[in-house]
User: Fold these one by one.
Assistant:
Number 1:
Amino acid sequence: MPITVTDYLDVVSSWCFWSEPTWAELKKRYEGRVTFQWKIALMDPSGLPTSREQEQWFYRRSGMMMRSPFMLKTEWYDPSLPEWLAPNCVAEAAKDFGFTDDRVRLTLARAALREGKEIGDWNVAADTGAGVGGIDTRKLLERARSAEIEQRVRASTVEFYALQITQRPAFVIDTEIGDRAVFSGVIKLEPLTATIDSMLDDAAVYAAYKAHFGDPPAK
């Protein structure tokens, strides 16, 4: 019974950044048994700070919660932007160049949050993303600014809000029989592994039952 875990995220969200070790461990632990994918869920003004000072306050809080030995940088932050379209579209566009894994989006996140690069600038975002992927910067920028990429990013954001949740990252775990678990803003490993293990156990039972009894009667 196939199981899919979808990570809804905003590339420059600090809480999404702190969730990355959990995401990496999940992919390692369930490799070959579970399908993993990520989708963009753009933060809107209601979820964004209104000043650099406010951003620093949030970073201090989340950094303490994660017991981080370093503090995230705020030099990248631009209060005039209502959303962070450039880095998210660049990460999404990189998928069309074969980079469906986490490399490009993680590089963009680190460039902003660890190095303070002005990643809200389209050229900076494209140059950063192209460097890690060995993609032509001009081609990546052109693709990232295309109407199709923006439509994809906004469509996945609509998917996120359709779940009636607000916190990113959101881990959505689905099975082919319609079971679903949604974790909004939860980034600790234990509740996620407990749920996936339970679903994998159900999958084993379904497979055993089918081996003994076959498919259900038509009527």
Number 2:
Amino acid sequence: MKTSSLNRRSALFGAALALPVALQSGTAAEAAEGKGKGKGKEGEGPIHHALRELKAVKLHLEKAPHDFGGHKVQALKDVNAAHASLEKALEFEAKKGA
């Protein structure tokens, strides 16, 4: 059971580190422009989904009992940077749609 918890934390940590790269991919760019699947009413699009996922990753990292060899601080910075970028994308979309 302890191994399962460690694997889960390792996966979350890896996802947090990979997220900024993934957000720069073509799929994320399409999502930011509203071209991706799942664009619905406000709060249901892919950017909103990503923001919710980032919040969950951040909470898991903050609650982690150790610092992953010093990488936890950088991972949290990356999560915060990704969150800020997604918020800017939403602002852009709001201005573009107005």
Number 3:
Amino acid sequence: MRQPEKTMSETDFAAFETKTPGDRTVMHVLYALHVAAPFTAWFLPVVALIVNYVKRADEGDPLYARHHSYMIRTFWWSVLWLLVTSPLFILFIVPGAIAWTIVAIWYLYRCIRGWLRFADNQLPPQ
């Protein structure tokens, strides 16, 4: 006897492939690239951002998808704050440098916090 086809609401989530150690390694490398941002003139996180977008599009695991989104959000908020504080840097070097340092510290904090939560198999902070 033939079984009926499953609809989207009846998807068997156990059929999804499980994550391999290689998948975890990729996430750790992406977090490392993001953490290296302030020390590489923001070049490495751009590479990581591209990989985040590509990986997130194919991601079936909610933990991994949320961490990709978290890294993407952190990157774009940092870029926004760097652009907003740019006039301070151009007009007044010291306040601008202080503002950019605060943005860099905030970025590192978010990346390290997310990385630690990923290492513990927890969803990223909101």
Number 4:
Amino acid sequence: MQRIDFETVLVESAKLPMVKIDRELFLRKELKGRYNKDVVEKAIEYNPAYAGIQVEEINKIAKSCINAEATRVTALSAAAGIPGGFAMIGTVPADLAQYFGHILRILQELIYLYGWQELHLDSAEMNEETKNLLTLFVGIMFGVNGAVNAVNKIAGQVAKQVAKKLPRKALTKGVVYPVVRKIAALLGVQMTKEIFARGVSKAVPVVGAIISGGLTLATYKPMSEKLRKYLSTCNVADVEYYKGIDGEVVDEVDE
């Protein structure tokens, strides 16, 4: 089997309808009704932690989002498990693109809840900065060595930019860039193995659909949880961090 190229999967999956998550609309939807208008607006302008929303509350919202996305992706995977269900999207098997599109959806939802700024998935051509960040986050989800350390270096810069109201700048150049290339190559190997397993499951009609859907549920939620748990430990999601870094006291908020 020809090895899957991770960057190709990333770019093709991002083009699918409904993959792009609008940060402002998403945060407004999830926070409205839980917090007052001023808190919601501050969370959108800066991030939820800067607005005083404790990580324990964000955890509850994040877990709900994971459950919702897992339900959607499992149904799609079961349909794709039926021979003749899906074919190809560009050079990428359609079921992989669909599955990975949902990985990108929950990835965006989680990073926005835990304080990161909007990724540019809606442009005609994905820029290198966005590709690099997505690669690192996906690397964490797949348990690729080096991904956590690389994101740790970036997370500190992101938190400072938010707290000091600094303009956004490129975050993945320099020492992080070679790590990104290595992680992308390792992800390609892992996805090639996954495609082979899915191909075998499709050999038996109906049963193949059940196997495919079950495997998806068994992998999607744990990977999403792995990213959620990591993000919850970063300074970007810590209310206390913002109190200390710029001397501004941000009051905790009530639901």
